[in-house]
Specification:
- The structure is a single chain.
- With about 180 residues, the chain is mostly beta strands.
- The protein has two domains: about 130 residues, no CATH class; about 50 residues, no CATH class.
- About 0% of the residues lie in helices and about 50% in strands.
- It contains one helix and 14 strands.
- The strands form three sheets. Strands 1, 4, 5, 6, 7, 8, 9 and 10 form an eight-stranded antiparallel sheet that branches.
- Strand 9 and strand 10 form a beta hairpin.
- The chain is elongated and about 70 Å long.
- It starts with a strand and ends with a strand.
Length: about 180
């Protein structure tokens, strides 16, 4: 889900002359909202449109891709993916897919500084995480609902924990539900 940032697709000198706010009018072209028309060879062929936002670093005059939005249509269904620039501790830059949407589901992906990611997916069947350590936090972080693979308290059965935060920022289980094994 990571990609390298793309180079600014135009002459670098154009960026400094770009209007940054409001309605843009040039001859018979007025831009406030933008519309994109995608064409494809057939009703089942994939069509895609990419829009990107670049930032001009006035100190270095370098253009850096900051965001990328990919719209696509395949087999009659539309999809969109939002990618954001991420810097790691080693100076590498990647475009990370952080939000994806189709008619069937929406995912939210977070990436830590080491590049480890976790994905939460909303679909008709409910909310799912791809990480067993994920939790739902309520009241800021006062309470959390968390899955546990099993411990001595649950006889090593998977269980759902409802926990409260202590003064030392650790959590104490107040209620747990273990899976019944027949």
């Amino acid at each position: 889900m990571s990609q390298a940032p793309t180079a600014f697709p135009h002459d670098q000198r154009l960026a400094a002359k770009t209007v940054t706010a409001g309605v843009v009018a040039l001859n018979d072209l007025v831009c406030e909202d933008t519309y994109s028309i995608m064409s494809r060879a057939s009703a089942t062929a994939r069509a895609a449109h990419v829009s990107a936002t670049y930032a001009l670093d006035s100190d270095t005059s370098a253009m850096v891709e900051e965001t990328r939005l990919v719209h696509s249509v395949e087999d009659g269904d539309a999809a969109s993916t939002l990618l954001l620039l991420r810097h790691d501790g080693a100076g590498n830059k990647t475009m990370e897919a952080v939000l994806g949407m189709t008619p069937a589901s929406t995912y939210i992906r977070s990436v830590d500084p080491d590049g480890t990611s976790a994905v939460a997916t909303f679909a008709k069947g409910g909310l799912r995480w791809d990480d067993a350590n994920a939790a739902i936090y309520l009241g800021g972080d006062t309470f959390r609902i968390k899955y546990a693979a099993g411990d001595a308290e649950s006889n090593s059965k998977p269980c759902l924990l409802i926990q409260a935060k202590n003064g030392d920022s650790t959590y104490t289980t107040k209620f747990s539900i273990a899976r019944d094994d027949d």
